[in-house]
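Before the break, one more example. Copy the sequence into your notebook; we will annotate it together after we see the structure.
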Amino acid sequence: MIVTGPGALPFAVQLKALTDVEGRYQPKLSGLRLIESSQDNGLRMTSRLRELEVKDLLSLTRFFGFSSETFSLAISLLDRFLSVMKIQPKHLSCVGLCCFYIAVKSAEEEKNVPLANDLIRISQNRFTVSDMMRMEKIIMEKLYWKVKAPTALRFLRLFHSHIQEQLDAESKQILSLERLEAQLKACHCSFVFSKIKPSLLAMALLCFEAQEQHEPEHSDKISEALKRLQQQLNIRDGDLVCVRELVGKCLADYATDRKSFFFHAFPSSHPAISILAIQGTPHIK
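Here is what the structure looks like once it is written out:
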């Protein structure tokens, strides 16, 4: 957990704690490339199937009202597992739900953790609780029981807090953490970001959002703070520009698709859809 405010560790200490272990929790690049190069023939895992599963998990996150931390951790677990274990597409829903359940138990209060059979029922899957328990054990063993990963969300919150401390009251209104976290969720739905270091993705999101603002007197101050942070992280200009452009494309694509997004995961008969009919289809949140 990122702690800010009085009593928090200095930024440099928190940053070092995350960056020192960041590489150990990265998905295996060779495994991700194998998924990326696979043809969508129903026999092997593909990037499209992974993206669909992540969108399903985002829908579940919304349905249960779970935190951004839970969703981000679930995607970290899923990508790490998929990069080291070849699975058949028919097993993906069980793998995804197990990663989600592990994240829920790790990040949510115990009183808010649903029963496994309720998760299966809500997600309308056909496997059993026993199937989930077996798969969860396999996942944990393959990931060496390392759950608490330094996710892009943790970096984003730390960076945002650090930047805000350097700004005046008016400039602080420019970078909304809620909006940034919503944008990160959209990025998690795109396979391309699985291959990018969490710290770089978080930095790119902040730079993209700062670039989108059209208030020079405030955005200049933010840009200066971001430049200092970039230097502290030793991120090359070319890498940052590349990922920032990927973020922009992802968010543009997501904005086009978001009206119908939620209805992908659940059929019209699902109780979640009934709730949305009353509340209205949510934007990214």
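The chain is about 65% helix and 0% strand. The CA atoms of residues 7 and 143 lie 33 Å apart. Try to locate both features in your own notes.
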